[in-house]
DNA sequence: ATCTGTCTTCCGTCACGTGGAAGGGGTGTA
DNA sequence: TACACCCCTTCCACGTGACGGAAGACAGAT
């Protein structure tokens, strides 16, 4: 109601609703295999209920039983996930460009999208000599400290930006920007220059540069290179390359959707 | 009850149960974007019901709305799918080996798992000069005619084999094996030799060779190379390579699980 | 033998999902 | 302007099917 009419309703219902979905939520990167009791505890329902819920998901293919009798996310979910335009579709469009970039730089190349006030890594090519990375494909992370996150946040709807700015960012290192005003200026600079540089904001020895992937004027993802270093100059040579690759991905997406 | 006691119950419930899952099932590779009315029609519920169901999934992240107002599979599903051991986990373990294989051969390299009486392609590296392939990552296909399918079927539980053999296989080309007896012999040969060769059984100009990926004695996936050709001899030089790569994947999986 | 942890099945109750009906927009045809 | 036909959205009384307590089976540990 605020301004645009493009966003239809159909988001209000914030109740979890189906407990089936809550069961799926019980599986996380840290706990990808659960027993029935663990699921029941995580979801907060009696065992008998969990038993039926898991039974349904099992029959559907959403969860599977491994050889130890524990439950894991099933192939059906992966298969459905492959239909997500921001998942596999994006990955397939981006991979060739990411490989080219890796070929030239032999550094970590990352692709991420925004989900709410967080980011999700969709693909990564990790150089063995490159700096160690914290997250994995499919993993989530905070927006502000990362290069990809700065790009995604800078081009996010204002309400999302305000929501992130309202909460004080976590300080991972002494270089992490935690002051809202400073972060606001950094975002403006990202919009102006078209790239974001994160200088040791996540780990003390890594710098990254990120560029937006645009489709018809909308930023749908961000591409970055992460290198070992202790100043923004470490990534400066890579700026044109990252920018060009991000543009290439955007063009590919625009032509295939 | 037939023989083993390892497989617990918890599969009987064959009713779809939650309609939420039916909504997700409405999305397919052919129709990855649907309007609310299309979903309602596909699921077989009135619009108002579909509206609520989609609303729940939307709030959860299972479906998203694209700029045209149509619904698509959401990032949350992709993210969950990344936890599926037979999805992304398998892919990550296999990709280096597949890349090596591609480096040497520059032919199509495919990785697939069995789901019931079908196979699902988990990853593919497609050579541009290579033969055109029908399916995509995340796609399903019948077991019998493909190389990967023969491997997966040959090592599947007997009941699955019988189920497949009971139905007459579709004849894609005049080389497709459709006689149950002949297929039975082919499967025995696959078990004996450790590889499967599919000679023009899917398309008239392609031959493939596949090898099983084993983890602790269980076949969890199959790896294959598809080349243009008109006889089994076209793939014979690749047999050792495919076999070695498949073994390597299995070893990697065994050490990381 | 007992206890503590798994998982499985059954069944009576009542919350909650269901879907009919009504309303609001947009676009195309007369 | 009026009508027709799509889309989508909201509301609410009804009755079905999900819920979870209780009881039992099984395995391993003390």
Task: Give the chain pair forming the largest contact, with residue counts.
Answer: A-B, 60 and 59 residues
* Topology of chain A as a string of helices (H) and strands (E): HEHHEEHHEEEHHHEEEH
**In the CATH scheme, what's the topology name of the largest domain in chain A?**
Beta-Lactamase
User: Total number of β-strand segments of chain A?
Assistant: 9
Please give the CATH architecture of the largest domain in chain A. Answer: 2-Layer Sandwich
Number of helices of chain A: 9
Principal-axes shape call of chain A: globular
**Gyration radius of chain A, in Å:** 20 Å
The largest sheet of chain A is: 6 strands, antiparallel
Terminus-to-terminus distance of chain A: 29 Å
What is this entry, summarized?
The first copy, chain A, is an alpha+beta fold and 257 residues long. Chain A has helices at 19-25, 36-43, 47-60, 75-81, 85-105, 147-154, 158-166, 180-193, 239-256, and strands at residues 33-34, 63-65, 71-73, 108-115, 118-125, 140-142, 196-199, 206-215, 218-228.
Describe this structure as you would to a colleague.
2 copies of one chain form a homodimer. Chain A is of the alpha+beta class. The first copy, chain A, folds into 2 domains: 19-81, Winged helix-like DNA-binding domain superfamily/Winged helix DNA-binding domain (Arc Repressor Mutant, subunit A); 85-256, Beta-Lactamase. Chain A has 9 helices and 9 strands. Chain A has helices spanning 19-25, 36-43, 47-60, 75-81, 85-105, 147-154, 158-166, 180-193, 239-256, and strands spanning 33-34, 63-65, 71-73, 108-115, 118-125, 140-142, 196-199, 206-215, 218-228. In chain A, the strands form 2 sheets. Chain A has a 6-stranded antiparallel β-sheet, sandwiched between helices. Chain A has a 3-stranded antiparallel β-sheet with strand order 1-3-2. In chain A, β7 (196-199) and β8 form a beta hairpin. In chain A, α5 (85-105) runs antiparallel to α9. The two termini of chain A are 29 Å apart. Chains A and B meet through α1, α3, α4 and α5 of A and α1, α3, α4 and α5 of B.
């Amino acid at each position: 109601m605020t301004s645009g009419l493009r966003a239809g309703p159909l988001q209000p219902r914030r109740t979890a609703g189906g407990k089936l979905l809550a069961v799926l939520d019980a599986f996380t990167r840290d706990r990808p295999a659960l027993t029935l009791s663990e699921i029941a505890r995580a979801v907060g329902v009696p065992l008998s209920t969990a038993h039926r819920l898991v039974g349904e998901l099992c029959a559907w293919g959403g969860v599977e039983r491994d050889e130890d009798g524990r439950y894991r996310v099933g192939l059906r979910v992966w298969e459905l996930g492959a239909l997500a335009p921001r998942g596999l579709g994006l990955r397939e469009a981006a991979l060739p460009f990411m490989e080219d970039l890796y070929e030239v730089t032999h550094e970590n190349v990352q692709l991420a999208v925004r989900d709410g006030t967080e980011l999700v890594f969709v693909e990564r090519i990790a150089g063995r000599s490159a700096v160690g990375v914290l997250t994995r494909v499919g993993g989530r992370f905070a927006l502000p400290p990362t290069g990809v996150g700065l790009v995604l946040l800078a081009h996010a709807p204002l309400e999302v930006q305000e929501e992130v700015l309202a909460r004080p960012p976590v300080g991972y290192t002494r270089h992490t920007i935690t002051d809202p005003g400073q972060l606001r200026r950094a975002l403006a600079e990202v919009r102006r220059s078209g790239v974001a540089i994160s200088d040791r904001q996540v780990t003390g020895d890594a710098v990254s540069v990120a560029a937006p992937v645009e489709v018809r004027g909308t930023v749908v993802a961000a591409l970055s290179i992460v290198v070992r270093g202790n100043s923004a100059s470490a990534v400066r040579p890579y700026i044109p390359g990252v920018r060009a690759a991000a543009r290439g991905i955007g063009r590919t997406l625009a032509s295939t959707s």
